[in-house]
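Hi all, posting the design record for the shared folder.

TITLE: backbone redesign
STEP: 1 of 1
STRUCTURE INPUT:
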């Protein structure tokens, strides 16, 4: 027997990903409690050197202190009121509308669920809104960074330069770039 209720009016089954509590929400305002969430995110990836994590927290502290006056912009991805991913970007001061995506990280157990793509898309949208033309990303050549480099390639970033032994011996800096439409 067919239902007389049109499909658009039939109730939909709720899925786990459709729960309001599981949705990712984006925000730009940095909070003091983001310090501990960022540390958890960065530690969970098992990629960053301790001194790199210190720099990430310093940039967050700059954003907390200076808010809109900071040259560093942040977008936070929250789930259940907890920061589970973030991106930090800003203009390259000595250039004509070029931007750096300094940091992007998603908690390891949530990687592969589209949170990074959401953050990249929102970052590109905001940079484009500021008349940004090109975005640059610096990343490591270490083997354990291959998934990171693949993520950037899937999102339209291409390798444009390599600086040998930049981070440490045999750990080159790879520079990727994307031109915005």
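Okay, here is what came back for every position:
SEQUENCE:
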């Amino acid at each position: 027997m067919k239902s007389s209720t049109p499909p658009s009016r039939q109730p939909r089954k709720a899925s786990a990903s459709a729960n309001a509590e599981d949705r990712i929400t984006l925000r730009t305002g940095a909070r003091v409690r983001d310090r501990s969430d960022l540390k958890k995110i960065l530690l969970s990836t098992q990629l960053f050197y301790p001194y790199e994590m210190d720099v990430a927290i310093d940039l967050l502290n700059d954003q907390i202190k200076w808010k809109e006056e900071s040259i560093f912009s942040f977008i936070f991805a929250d789930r259940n009121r907890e920061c589970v991913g973030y991106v930090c970007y800003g203009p390259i001061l000595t250039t004509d509308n070029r931007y750096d995506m300094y940091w992007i990280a998603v908690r390891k157990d949530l990687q592969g669920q589209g949170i990074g793509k959401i953050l990249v898309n929102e970052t590109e949208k905001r940079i484009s809104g500021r008349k940004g033309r090109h975005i640059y990303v610096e990343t490591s050549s270490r083997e354990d960074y291959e998934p990171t480099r693949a993520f950037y390639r899937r999102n339209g970033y291409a390798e444009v330069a390599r600086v040998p032994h930049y981070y440490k011996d045999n750990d080159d800096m790879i520079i990727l770039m994307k031109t915005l439409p």
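COMMENT: The chain has one domain: 24-179.
Let me know if anyone wants the other runs.
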